[in-house]
Design a protein that fits this description.
Helices cover about 30% and strands about 25% of the residues. It is globular, with a radius of gyration of 18 Å. The strands form two sheets. It has a six-stranded mixed beta sheet with strand order 5-6-7-3-8-9, sandwiched between helices. A three-stranded antiparallel beta sheet has the order 2-1-4, covered by helices on one side. The protein folds into two domains: about 130 residues, Rossmann fold, CATH 3.40.50.300; about 60 residues, no CATH class. Helix 3 packs across helix 4. It has about 240 residues and is α/β, with parallel strands linked by helices. Bound molecules: adenosine-5'-triphosphate (ATP). Adenosine-5'-triphosphate binds next to helix 1. Adenosine-5'-triphosphate (ATP) binds next to helix 1.
Length: about 240
């Protein structure tokens, strides 16, 4: 891989620190994301993944460190966070002037026919699709995703992961994907980072052909390596 220059980077963070009272959660974390690159962020529960994502999203003014994230970013959380008093299309259109972009985004996630529905009328998977449409309508150069598929049932999660792959191929956005799911990281990401004791402790390139599948050659080896990096021992 050619060395990355600063101009290739869409996200650059250096020495990110955050403590809550006496507890230091991030202790000088460094992170780069290149244009169009999907980076998974893993780590034990409470290791600070969401804290780092929130900082990059500009949602935590108390953090310190140097970080640049383009203004044109969008965030998707585990919960859809749709406004219940706005119809689907108006949720997608929040802060976006161009209505065509909103209609197109809704069509891209397969929900053109639900534009006039209320959020309460949607399934969990559909609501999360709308959350992605809302993000897409902003034409982001980077998506910040905090376990966006974590609350979905296994089948819906698989469909959403496939949708994410198609959207990424079409739009070329970069993404930071916080996930607990090793398989998800290896299906979707170009690199997998492991956050441990406040720093990025490992950076694993995922050099697998697309479309990827858990039974494809090379997948199992990478899964084992990533589990090792996460400190999960192999079954005896
Ligand atoms: N607003 C807050 N006030 C106090 N402590 C907080 C706050 N936000 C996060 N923390 C603490 O910071 C640590 C990291 O939390 P964070 O949610 O970033 O971890 P995580 O890696 O995303 O965890 P999980 O995988 O369980 O979602 C935890 O110990 C958490 O309790």
């Amino acid at each position: 891989m050619a060395p990355r220059t600063a101009s290739d980077l869409v996200v650059r963070a250096r020495g990110v620190r955050r403590a809550f009272g006496p507890v230091t959660v991030l202790d000088g974390a460094d992170l780069d994301i290149a244009r169009g690159e999907v980076v998974a962020l893993l780590g034990g529960s409470g290791s600070g993944k969401s804290t780092l994502l929130r900082i990059l999203a500009g949602l935590d003014p108390a953090a310190s460190g140097d970080f640049t994230v383009p203004a044109q970013h969008a965030v998707v959380f585990q919960e859809h966070r749709l406004l219940p008093w706005k119809r689907v299309i108006d949720n997608v259109g929040l802060g976006v002037d161009d209505r065509t972009r909103c209609t197109d985004a809704l069509a891209e996630v397969g929900l053109a026919d639900r534009a006039r529905a209320w959020p309460i009328e949607l399934s969990g998977g559909q609501a999360q699709r709308v959350a992605f449409a809302r993000a897409l309508a902003r034409e982001p150069s980077v998506l910040l995703l905090d376990e966006p598929f974590g609350a979905l049932d296994a089948l819906t999660r698989l469909r959403m992961q496939q949708l994410f792959g198609r959207l990424r191929a079409r739009h070329g956005f970069a993404a930071l994907l916080v996930t607990h799911d090793v398989e998800e990281a290896l299906l979707l990401a170009d690199r997998a980072l492991v956050l441990d004791r406040g720093v990025i402790a490992a950076d694993l390139p995922v050099e697998l052909e697309h479309p990827r599948a858990p039974d494809a050659p090379g997948f199992g080896v990478l899964r084992r390596r990533l589990l090792d990096l996460l400190g999960v021992p192999s079954a005896a």
